[in-house]
Amino acid sequence: MIIRRYAVFVLAAAVLALFAAACSNDDSGGPAAPEELTTCISVSAGENHTLAVDSDGRLWAWGHNRYGQLGDGTWEDSNVPVPVGHDTDWKSVSAGNHFSVAVKHNGTLWAWGINNKGQLGTGLPVGCNAPVQVGNDGDWKAVSAGASFVAALKDDGSLWTWGDNSMGQLGDGTLVDVYAPHRVGGEKDWAEVSAGSTHCVAVKKDGSLWAWGDSRLGQLGEGLSAVPRATPVRIGGENDWVHVSAGWGHTLAIRKDGSLWAWGDNSHGQIGDGTTAARPSPVMVSPASWKGISAGYQFSVGILHDGSLWAWGDNSYGQLADGTKTQSVEPVREVSGSPWSFASAGRQHAIAIRNDGTAWVWGANWYGQLGDGTMTDSPVPLGLTF
């Protein structure tokens, strides 16, 4: 947080006293008292911007804002969190490439930022720098922003997509972009969905795993293919998948026994199996008990059931949070050793929530996406106050 110094000159002592009382952040009389870190209920790291919903239901954003992806009504980057409107009923957020989507507690869906591919779902290719409601429905359950498309679930278990469809990532059987939410198939048994760069993965309520879109790097888990999968295809015959995360060119997944699996691009060790060999089909990374995962650009993060946070892959900007900038082809533990509940990996940075609800960031900071008031990368987690 940036603390500004104010030089105030007044003639009347009474006016001075009143002014000083109103400006509690003035540090001219000595160091300001340390502020408590902000507690959050939802966070998301995008390409070069970050989103968070605090425990009061307020929405905050920071980082790159050339396309209005911060939603604060400006086009200016910010290296500190800025409020997105004044509403206090936000539930969850997801940051894509230059755009953002979010769900409120009343089930309405909102979006803002770039809209060149229809990723805002408003029906027109017009971007905006403040949240706009997507349709009128109030039954949205979860939303995931990919590079330039969105996948979302409704309360009834139906799956919806919109935006860029150049690689079949909308799953509707075509390669045509769509500018408003449209339903994928007629099923109502989808449990979880994750949008990556140009592919999508999902789990059904029966535990089966499905994928569609780009498969040039093996990110669908069914081998390498130059031809996109424009409709969902089942991956394997298992019915014990519980969580999935689609990255830029690789995919992570957790099975019911807690084991971690990965496939796709492995050029920087982001699969985590100790190699840099491409993995066009699922391989087990770790038999340990994992509870959360997030696939970034060329790195991955995961949380074990004991609350420890691990990361692997590219570490050029400190995105592994292990205090170094050394790549790792196997999971390495985050340096603080603190217990964590949730993590989100972006392009070259990440944000996570500790068990106490506080939000922490690390990695690249070119546009201020760490929100710490600087433009300096950090290989260790930094606590946020806003």
Task: Describe it.
With 386 residues, the chain is mostly beta strands. The protein has one domain: Methylamine Dehydrogenase, Chain H. It contains 1 helix and 28 strands. The strands form 7 sheets. It has a 4-stranded antiparallel beta sheet with strand order 1-2-3-4, with no helix packed on it. Strands 5-6-7-8 form a 4-stranded antiparallel beta sheet, with no helix packed on it. It has a 4-stranded antiparallel beta sheet with strand order 9-10-11-12, with no helix packed on it. Strand 5 and strand 6 form a beta hairpin. It starts with 12 loop residues before the first helix and ends with a strand. The N terminus is likely disordered.
Report strand order across the widest sheet: 1-2-3-4
Helical run tally: 1
Structural class: mainly beta
Indicate the mean pLDDT: 92
Main beta sheet: 4 strands, antiparallel
Instruction: Specify the CATH class.
Output: Mainly Beta
Helix content: under 10%
Q: What's the total count of β strands?
A: 28
CATH fold-level topology: Methylamine Dehydrogenase, Chain H
The name of the CATH architecture is 7 Propeller
CATH superfamily: Regulator of chromosome condensation 1/beta-lactamase-inhibitor protein II
Terminal CA distance reads 7 Å
Order of helices and strands: HEEEEEEEEEEEEEEEEEEEEEEEEEEEE
- Please mark out the parts with pLDDT under 50 across 5 or more consecutive residues, or reply none: 1-34
Strand content: 35-45%
Principal-axis shape: globular
Radius of gyration from the CA trace?
Answer: 21 Å
Instruction: Count structural domains.
Output: 1
